[in-house]
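Technical annex, item 7. During the second reporting period the consortium partners agreed on a shared format for inverse folding records so that results from different sites could be compared directly. Each record opens with the tokenized structure and is followed by the designed sequence. A conforming record, contributed by the partner at site C, is shown below for reference.
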């Protein structure tokens, strides 16, 4: 009897959590439907949800949406992979070495506040308007989050663990791979989640300025042709794909680092 109560309580909690999760999107869509279908906001500015969903379905059926999304997705993966790898490597170097931290921190503090859009014309001058410039922009966007979280994760290692390792006379290699890195991995994954979000922002910005394909180009071209429904359809796709990628990384993080989330 007690087990049934616990199961019912657990099921009720899951349902309640699901309701809370979808509550805000449902309210936003309902408000969107109301203001567009009652004429409070003109549909030339904000198309109705049903019109945007119809456009989305039409783009999907034609294959245009899939083509543009896949192009952008490949660009994001390429730039993000480069940013994540270098972010971990340089972040590890700065986290482990106080000397390297001092040497590189000034450049990091100077370059990090520069907005992504400011890099686009620079990379176009250096690399042209091909794939290299887009990859470079995405790399810059995803690099900083991974770098800073890697440094923070390493430097936040519990001093008690380090003290125990030194008492046991563990060598430097063991300290790095058995103490520092396991401690830093949750923070590194957080940096990657932030970095992949930034990568999507960067690819859309880059495609709006210098591209003939991709979801950013589709949005920009639709705006020029005064097709607001297509613009909003593209924006919704970016958001949905971003959520799916973030949830995928979060799932992977919990699977690989299950020991860090023990209740």
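Designed sequence (site C submission):
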């Amino acid at each position: 009897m007690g087990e049934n109560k616990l199961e019912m309580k657990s099921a009720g909690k899951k349902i309640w959590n699901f309701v809370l999760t979808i509550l805000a999107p449902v309210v936003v869509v309902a408000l969107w439907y109301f203001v567009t279908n009652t004429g409070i906001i003109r549909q030339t500015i904000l198309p109705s949800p049903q019109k945007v969903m119809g456009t989305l379905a039409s783009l999907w059926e034609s294959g245009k949406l899939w083509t543009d999304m896949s192009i952008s997705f490949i660009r994001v993966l390429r730039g993000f992979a480069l940013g994540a790898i270098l972010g971990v490597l340089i972040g590890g170097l700065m986290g482990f070495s106080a000397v390297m931290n001092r040497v590189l921190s000034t450049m990091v503090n100077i370059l990090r506040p520069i907005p992504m859009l400011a890099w686009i014309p620079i990379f176009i001058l250096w690399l042209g308007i091909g794939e290299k410039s887009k990859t470079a922009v995405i790399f810059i966007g995803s690099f900083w989050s991974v770098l800073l979280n890697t440094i923070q994760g390493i430097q936040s290692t519990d001093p008690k663990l380090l003290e125990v390792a030194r008492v046991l006379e563990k060598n430097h290699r063991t300290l790095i791979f058995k103490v520092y890195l396991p401690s830093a991995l949750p923070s590194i994954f957080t940096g990657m989640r932030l970095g992949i979000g930034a990568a999507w922002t960067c690819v859309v910005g880059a495609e709006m300025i210098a591209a003939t394909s991709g979801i950013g180009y589709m949005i920009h071209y639709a705006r020029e042709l005064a097709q607001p429904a297509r613009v909003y359809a593209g924006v919704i796709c970016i958001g949905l794909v971003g959520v799916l990628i973030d949830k995928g990384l979060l799932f992977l993080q919990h699977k690989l680092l299950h020991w860090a989330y023990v209740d």
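The two ends are 25 Å apart (CA to CA). The mean pLDDT is 84. All partners now use this format for quarterly exchanges.
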